[in-house]
């Protein structure tokens, strides 16, 4: 089977129901989602299955959900049946709460880094934020986009932040706090 079609040699690609320029905002957005997914895949290769089984399970589900997000953005037909729903967002919110409870107290901004896996999760987080910004721009430009994808990307970046911190904590590596800033996050004890 040949994977090249030559149909994109003039700078266009296929959506479900139309063709578009490869630099179209819709294409850029789901391309950025794919980029985030690739960094999540890299993080998976950096995590020990025994220590991080729960996070690996989360990341596998997230990778499938990101494919669903990209697929939903590729649909431009009049009849749309999207795969993404609010359910994965609720799952992410539950996991964010659990991971934030497990991780060390958060008082200052955190510099990306620590273990290789945590650093990769931080990259995936920033790419997810870029995808979300692109999604917001796309929503302003076109009405036919699934809003649930933007909500999912917003929660995903929060999940990746929490997961990166727990990866460092379980590995016994401290997060590096941004030292030039004040204490910005306060606990109930403060």
UniProtKB/TrEMBL annotation:
Q: Is Transferase a UniProt keyword of this protein?
A: yes
The pathway to which it is assigned is: Cofactor biosynthesis; adenosylcobalamin biosynthesis; adenosylcobalamin from cob(II)yrinate a,c-diamide: step 2/7
Please report the stretch or stretches of sequence annotated as the Cobalamin adenosyltransferase-like domain: 3-167
**Which GO MF terms does the UniProt record name?**
ATP binding; corrinoid adenosyltransferase activity
List the EC numbers from the record.
Answer: 2.5.1.17
Q: Which family does it belong to?
A: Belongs to the Cob(I)alamin adenosyltransferase family.
Kindly state the subunit structure of this protein: Homotrimer.
Q: What is this protein called?
A: Corrinoid adenosyltransferase
